[in-house]
Amino acid sequence: MEIENAVVDPQTGMAAPYADRNGVRDLLRVVQAETGGEPLHDGEHLTGVRTGDGTEITLEHGGALEYASPPVADLATAVTGLRQAVDHLAEVARGLGLAVLPGANLPFNRLADVPWVPKPRGALMRGFFDDLGDAGSLGQVVMALTLSTQATLDYTSADDLAEKVRVHVAASPVVAALFVNSPLEGGELTGLQSRRCQGWLRTDPRRCGLLPVGLRDRMTAEDFVEWALGLPMIYHRTADGAYRAAGGSAFGELLERGFPDGSMPTWDDWTSHLSQVWTEVRVRRTLELRAADGPAYPHVQAVPALWVGLTYHRPSRLAAWELLRHHTAAELRQAIRDVPARGLSAAAGGVPVRELGRELLRLARA
């Protein structure tokens, strides 16, 4: 499980700066001291802590804290660990005069107010999105202001991967609608039910949104690799640890010609490239499910519970695919485009998303 939490001034709701006294850097220092964890750095800057059990607490670009659990065997253990860790973060924050705020975005900040964390790759990403024009116009908003609650599940074979991915991708617009929870920005109503979902729709549609090859009846690993090879790489890390722009070339082209500095891609570059893909279902060694806005903290377990129920009970997984398979890729893309404004009132091919959501919830409980 992963949950992103804003760290804010409890009086104003504004994000806490990184380097100020009692800011998020100091919060990480206290967490590291109290847990005995390993400090994680970007260059000289403290940006995370890894504890002995594999838990990671890391900073997002706008100062949000991401909790990432270690792999566990069951949902109850994952939720218990998450609550213990986030409750500890909240206690540490309170001691510094701060508050931890889960949810789907920072509701009172605007982009101009963002206290950017000094992560070297952040400037490269912001420049990349800016160069895309309208297609990347909300990339910085997503980097700085959005929060989420994510489930990460596994697969055991090529057939298992194909079965799970097709259901996850087809269900993503419905799950996004079930969890809309970001109507505010800059302390004002935006007229949307999910500003976060809107942001991802305008953060390079080539690498965000619904995974195109995932909507095939049986996606193979080769299908995914071929698709990912065609995406431009944003940045790469040099031998001395510095981050450099990758030159805007597709990864497949980089394999043939190399980076602008003359070096050739390595396996680490490939795994880094896959981390620069933010589709609603992120395929790596695991399946990262990213469609949902983060809910209020008392209900945070609802996100992984829904996905676990639809994934690990095979009869439910097959029934969910039977429910969704008749919707075309175009219908599902239109549905997720409608979700930010309409939420559960959106439709997929004329079928109300509310009805699809009701049936998915029933299947997940089975």
TrEMBL record:
Q: What are its E.C. numbers?
A: 6.3.2.2
Enzyme class, top EC level, equals: ligase
InterPro entries in the record: GCL_bact_plant, GCS2, Gln_synth/guanido_kin_cat_dom
Q: Tell me, what is one Gene Ontology molecular-function annotation carried by this entry?
A: glutamate-cysteine ligase activity
Q: Which Pfam families match?
A: GCS2
Reaction catalysed by this enzyme: L-cysteine + L-glutamate + ATP = gamma-L-glutamyl-L-cysteine + ADP + phosphate + H(+)
Protein name in UniProt: glutamate--cysteine ligase
What GO terms describe the biological role, i.e. biological process, of this protein? glutathione biosynthetic process
Sorted alphabetically, which keywords does the UniProt record give? ATP-binding, Ligase, Nucleotide-binding
